[in-house]
Amino acid sequence: MSLFQTEAWQTAWWGLWGGTSGFDPVVAGSSGVSGLYVDRYRFKHVLPVRCLQFVGTNYRRISTPRTEYNTFGLEHGDAAASFGAVERLLSSVCWSEAVFKDMLADSKEVAWLRQLSDDHGWGLRVVAEDSAFSINTRGTFEDYLKGLGQNSRLRLYNRRKVLEGLGKISEANFWPDRAGEFFECLNAFHVERWGSPCFNPDSLKFHEMFLRDVADEGGEPRLSVMTCDGSVVSVLYNVIYSGVVYNIQAGFLETFHKKLALGTLHLGYSIENAFHARDIHCFDMLAGSGKNENYKVRIATDRVSLTSIMLVKSPLFKLLYSLKK
């Protein structure tokens, strides 16, 4: 079970966006299961669409914080009964297409969806593919560093001496009392680097709701702020859940020093802390890449493929998608 299937994440997402016109709940998510809902709308204001999808995701209409590792929760318990129950649900709900985003590509669930499409004569399309990167922290930090390439080790760790020679470097967790200040810094850094804030007002409300409630499920927010002589220079949005550190977002002062990869150095401190914590076995950097390069692939020890699958039930949509090919 990942952070994204907690009741805190699922409930906060539906609480913010579930009231969108055309959204109809099907199954609530929590305890390792992604919720489901149907999005009713007209594509290009003409074609009526009923799109079944996971809570935390949306195909075409709205953009929200990314929800990864989505699952029907079928990998555990009585698999045959669980698969049968979901198949009956998919057969009973009225939908023209279904989009199941960011599932583990090599999971039994994805294989089952492919078989299901054949059994029912539904169309199947892969609408997106990506990779998520993580670091196994069960060993020692020293051995991990030895396994990195020379340049990666330099950016992540060795240039700490340069950083620490520029002033007093401190790190603090701004949760909960200074969370607002943390997100202001994160947004400001993203405006400088990307030209727009990391989170819009609705997304900020979502994260505040999620962080407030995830502690009830054993989650530990870590809004890590690095300062140099008291000035904020880098931030990491991490949450610890079930032995995993999830690195959700990051931001840093891009003009701080031309020889330093400041965000990578801050990440290095956080990764080292994860290695030293007995109850942490993984530092998950999730999917996505940096502005100029995919830095995650250089420092990760593990990689999993994510896939987004579309099932097409409507004969008209099957025809239209076949013509699109």
Q: Structural class, judged by helices and strands?
A: alpha+beta
The residue fraction in helices comes out at: 25-40%
Quaternary state reads: single chain
Radius of gyration: 21 Å
Task: Provide structural commentary.
The protein is an alpha+beta fold. It is 36% helix and 29% strand. It is built from 11 helices and 11 strands. It has an 11-stranded mixed β-sheet with strand order 1-2-3-4-11-5-10-9-8-7-6, sandwiched between helices. The protein is elongated and about 65 Å long. The two termini are 36 Å apart.
Briefly characterize the structure:
The protein is of the alpha+beta class and 325 residues long.
Write a concise keyword list for the protein shown above:
325 residues, alpha+beta, Aminopeptidase, 2 domains, eleven-stranded mixed sheet, elongated
List the helices and strands and how they pair.
Layout: H1 7-17, E1 23-27, E2 36-43, E3 47-54, H2 79-92, E4 97-104, H3 108-120, E5 123-136, H4 141-146, H5 150-158, H6 160-164, E6 169-173, H7 179-194, H8 201-214, E7 220-228, E8 231-241, E9 244-252, H9 262-276, E10 282-287, H10 295-299, E11 302-312, H11 315-324
Helix pairs in contact: 1-8
